Every structure is written in C-alpha cells, then in structure tokens.
C-alpha cells in the first residue's frame, strides 16, 4: 500500500514540476523536431496556458488519489491508540449486561465481537485477534497493522438478575440457565 501512496505523490510532484516549467522551451526541446517547419506548428500562447492548466489538474488528481490511498490504508489497519481505545470500550460493554456462561468459560469470541463493535470506525474487524492467555481469565488482544497488544482479564459472578428457564418438552421440567455479570480490566502489553 505504501508503494501506491508514494507513486501518487511522486506523480503529483512531477506534474507540478512539469506545469512550472517553461512550456515553450519544452516544445522546442521535445516536440519541434517532428515538424518540417517547427515555427509554423508552434502552439499559441493560449494553447500553452491550457496545457499548463491541464497539467496542474492532473497534479491535483494525483494528489487527491494519494490522499484517498492514505485514507484507505488508515481504514484498513489499526494503530496502537485505536486498538487501545476499542479494547477499553469493549471492556465497558462487557460489564453492561449479563451474559450466559460459555460452555468452556472461554469469552474470546465475545471479546472479539465487542472489540470489533467498539472499533467499527477505527479499523477493520477482521484484523482483530483475541487469544486465551495462560491464565484462564486472561485474553490477549492484538490486531493487524500494529505491534501493540492488550491483556483483558475477565471474571464472572452470578447475576443478581438471576437467569432464565428454558421450557421443557412434554412432561419434562424446564432447564434453568444462569446468567453472569462480567467484570473486565485491561492492561497494555501481552498477558
């Protein structure tokens, strides 16, 4: 991506340099030899002016494309600050409502979804990676585009709101499913 950005800005600089050069000298240096009578075929002053305007328009288009490529590159990668902000927001979001206990007490998918939601305008969701750390309650969060890593510790306790009962089939009694309140803390660095 860097090569594309550099190409657009170098092309813009070359067009600006070409636009600032004396157009008459450029004609006599590069184009006049094609004609039997170069003086009779020399462009008028207004033609040189239009040529210069078109060259500056081309420079502006190249610069615009360079900035759009920079914006695209920024939208498709994470910075350390963006990832940190998304992790903090995800930790707050985890604490807002009760959750059903995961069968393996692994909240990595839930954390990944919350980080993606929190960082929706900051970086691509597909670039977020959440892995359980050595400790059962710790999760390491990383993202493409940055070397930064964050450690989120998640603990759970049974919710004061209780849970819910899944109705049974026929004469069978329903199943009670407890909900848990999560508490999440974050720290910069790997777990």
Structural description of this entry:
With 191 residues, this protein is α+β, with helices and mostly antiparallel strands. It has two domains: 2-75; 80-188, no CATH class. Helix content is 48%, strand content 24%. Strands 1-5-4-3-2 form a five-stranded antiparallel sheet. A hairpin with a 5-residue loop joins β2 and β3. The model has no long low-confidence stretch (mean pLDDT 85).
Can you give keywords for this protein?
single chain; 191 residues; alpha+beta; 2 domains; 5 strands; 24% strand; rod-shaped
Mean pLDDT reading? 85
Low-confidence stretches: none
Share of residues in helices: 40-55%
Percent in strands: 15-25%
What is the β-strand count?
A: 5
Largest sheet: 5 strands, antiparallel
The secondary-structure element order is HHHHHEHEEEE
Computed over alpha carbons, the radius of gyration is 31 Å
- Please report the number of helical segments: 6
What are the SSEs and their pairings?
Blueprint (H helix, E strand, L loop, with lengths): L1 H19 L2 H9 L6 H4 L3 H31 L4 H17 L2 E2 L7 H11 L9 E5 L5 E6 L5 E18 L8 E14 L3
Summarize the structure.
By secondary structure, the chain is an alpha+beta fold. It has helices at 2-20, 23-31, 38-41, 45-75, 80-96, 108-118, and strands at 99-100, 128-132, 138-143, 149-166, 175-188.
């Amino acid at each position: 991506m860097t090569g594309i950005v550099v190409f657009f800005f170098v092309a813009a600089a070359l067009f600006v340099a070409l636009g600032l050069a004396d157009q008459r000298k450029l004609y006599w240096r590069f184009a006049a030899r094609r004609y039997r009578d170069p003086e009779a075929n020399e462009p008028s002053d207004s033609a040189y002016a239009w040529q210069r305007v078109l060259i500056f328009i081309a420079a502006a288009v190249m610069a615009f494309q360079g900035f759009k490529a920079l914006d695209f590159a920024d939208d498709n990668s994470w910075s350390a600050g963006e990832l940190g902000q998304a992790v903090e927001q995800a930790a707050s979001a985890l604490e807002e409502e009760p959750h059903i206990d995961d069968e393996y007490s692994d909240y990595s998918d839930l954390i990944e979804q919350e980080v993606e939601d929190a960082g929706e305008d900051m970086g691509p969701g597909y670039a977020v990676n959440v892995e359980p750390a050595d400790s059962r309650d710790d999760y390491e969060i990383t993202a493409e585009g940055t070397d930064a890593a964050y450690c989120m510790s998640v603990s759970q306790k049974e919710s004061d709101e209780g849970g819910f009962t899944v109705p049974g089939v026929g004469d069978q009694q329903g199943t009670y499913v407890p909900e848990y309140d999560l508490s999440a803390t974050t720290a910069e660095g790997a777990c």
